[in-house]
């Protein structure tokens, strides 16, 4: 049976006419009527590099939460955070957390690391060969770095991690990437570096692959949790006892006890981190601001720590070890996504760490709000009120 191919225009496939032709094709070959997906306000000519077979748009509701008060290294002051979601109560919950943390004086945010990886693997006849290669790599780092950086004006090779297994040497090339997320940048730079290595290493290399999967691109990994991928951001705050009692109808002791209990449950279930629902906040902001949505797989990882202070208040922090964000390139320049970034003054160069701090602070607000809703037994009632899409 011959398949019917989706139509494409060889000369210019990014026009309203080409999109309309594809919609007609889908309508003729499926039960769908593509009315709403045909409604969009931008010129399809801006889309090369973002999508293929462009046919229309999937519209998603977006709301703002805030003001979110941040005392950061890069984000300072009040922010209104765009969140795209179809889950009722989500924006309201984050909004509640933002109101609470603002009343407590704001969230302190700190970017402690920033790196993007590509992870090639080299194969040798024996482990001894891998060891000799390891020594040569360390001796020639400066030349390898120079080769990698010929491909980019902004990417810088910081260091290379070395991991042995059998007769292979797995490497993790760590780059700073400016305001780009950097996966494509690091892939190209590492490819050129590997070509230099192959052409200059004096001994036999049996084989090599540009990705040995130790960068765990778009997958969660413990290695990235420890060594960072993207921005490693810490958001922290001390919430006064009286404020918790007034705003959330709970106490520091109740919240702390619930956190200890839930961490044990997560351990039993084999959870990969101890956050409550960081993926909600990360995904909602990612979609609104044109981030690569698949990076939620890595970026949602969170390390939550809390304690009751000697004064009886509640210290709470969230560490995001693999927050991959961009404020330039990719989907960030698309019209609606750019507007959302501009609402936070996060579009363009010099803004990626600022966006990372805003997202980390947003995640903290959602963790506090949901945790308190569970403790005060308001979780079900709030979802019943706001989270059901009744006809």
From TrEMBL:
Matching InterPro entries: HMG_CoA_Rdtase (IPR002202), HMG_CoA_Rdtase_eu_arc (IPR004554)
Pfam families: HMG-CoA_red (PF00368)
Parts of the chain that traverse the membrane: none
CDD domains: HMG-CoA_reductase_classI
PANTHER family recorded: 3-HYDROXY-3-METHYLGLUTARYL-COENZYME A REDUCTASE (PTHR10572)
The name this protein goes by in its record: Hydroxymethylglutaryl-CoA reductase
Lineage: Bacteria, Pseudomonadati, Pseudomonadota, Gammaproteobacteria, Cellvibrionales
């Amino acid at each position: 049976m011959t398949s019917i191919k989706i139509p494409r225009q060889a000369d210019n496939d990014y026009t309203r006419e080409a999109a309309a032709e594809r919609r007609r094709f889908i309508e003729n070959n499926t039960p769908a009527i593509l009315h709403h997906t045909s409604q969009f306000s931008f010129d399809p000519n801006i889309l090369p590099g973002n999508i293929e077979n462009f046919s229309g748009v999937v519209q998603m509701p977006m709301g703002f939460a805030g003001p979110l008060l941040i005392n950061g290294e890069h984000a300072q002051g009040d922010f209104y955070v765009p969140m795209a979601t179809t889950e009722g109560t989500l924006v309201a919950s984050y909004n509640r957390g933002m109101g609470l943390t603002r009343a407590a004086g704001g969230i302190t945010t700190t970017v402690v690391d920033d790196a993007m990886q590509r992870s090639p693997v080299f194969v040798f006849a024996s482990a001894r060969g891998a060891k000799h290669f390891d020594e040569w790599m360390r001796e020639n780092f400066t030349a390898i770095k120079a080769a990698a950086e010929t491909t980019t004006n902004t990417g810088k090779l910081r260091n290379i991690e070395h991991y042995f297994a059998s007769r292979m040497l797995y490497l993790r090339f760590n780059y700073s990437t400016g305001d780009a997320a950097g996966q494509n940048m690091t892939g190209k730079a590492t490819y050129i570096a590997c070509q230099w290595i192959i052409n200059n290493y004096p001994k036999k290399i049996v084989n090599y692959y540009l990705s040995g999967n130790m960068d765990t691109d778009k997958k969660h990994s413990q290695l990235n949790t420890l060594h960072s991928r993207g921005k490693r951001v810490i958001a922290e705050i001390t919430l006064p006892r009286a404020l918790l009692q007034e705003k959330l109808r709970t106490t520091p002791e109740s919240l702390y006890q619930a956190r200890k209990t839930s961490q044990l449950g997560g351990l039993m279930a084999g959870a990969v981190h101890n956050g409550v629902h960081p993926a909600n906040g990360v995904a909602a902001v990612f979609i609104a601001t044109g981030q690569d949505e698949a990076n939620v797989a890595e970026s949602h990882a969170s390390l939550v720590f809390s304690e009751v202070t000697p004064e009886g208040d509640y210290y709470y922090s969230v560490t995001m070890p693999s927050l991959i964000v961009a404020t330039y390139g990719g989907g960030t320049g698309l019209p609606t996504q750019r507007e959302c970034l501009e609402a936070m003054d996060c579009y363009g160069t010099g803004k990626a760490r600022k966006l990372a701090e805003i997202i980390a602070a947003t995640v903290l607000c959602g963790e506090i709000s949901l945790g308190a809703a569970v403790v005060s037994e308001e979780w079900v009632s709030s979802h019943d009120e706001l989270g059901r899409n009744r006809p």
